[in-house]
Amino acid sequence: MIANQVSTRRARLLIGGEWTHGYQTFEVFDKFSGEMIGEADSASREQVNAAVRAARASFETNKLDGYERYRILMKVAS
User: Fold this and answer.
1) Strand partners, 41
2) pLDDT digits (tens, 9 = 90+) for 8-44
3) Do 12 and 50 contact (CB within 8 A), yes or no?
């Protein structure tokens, strides 16, 4: 990448296993260079509540032990 060319990305919201857009976006800046590096979505109050409900439901239904969760997360991260 040539200097001063920044590839911008947009981060969306993951709520209940579904990617969705927030109600507005905000710019994300590199704290060292001050350059804009992307955009992220802000969640509305309703989206935050939906995300909390989905997270609670996943804990109630999740029967994986700690090692299984670790194995899945490491696989996704690589």
Assistant:
1) 25
2) 678 899 999 899 999 999 999 999 999 999 999 999 9
3) no
Contact 42, 25 (CB under 8 A): yes
Distance, in Å, from the CA atom of 15 to the CA atom of 5, rounded to the nearest integer, reads: 32
Secondary structure of 28-54 as H, E, C letters? EECCCCCCEEEEEEECCHHHHHHHHHH
In 10 A of CB 15, how many CB atoms? 19
Please indicate, yes or no, whether the overall pTM of this predicted structure exceeds 0.90.
no
If you search the block for the tokens 């690589």, which residue do you land on?
78
**Residue 37 to residues 18, 28, 43, 46: CA-CA distances in angstroms?**
24, 6, 20, 27
Q: Tell me, what amino acid is at 23? A: Y
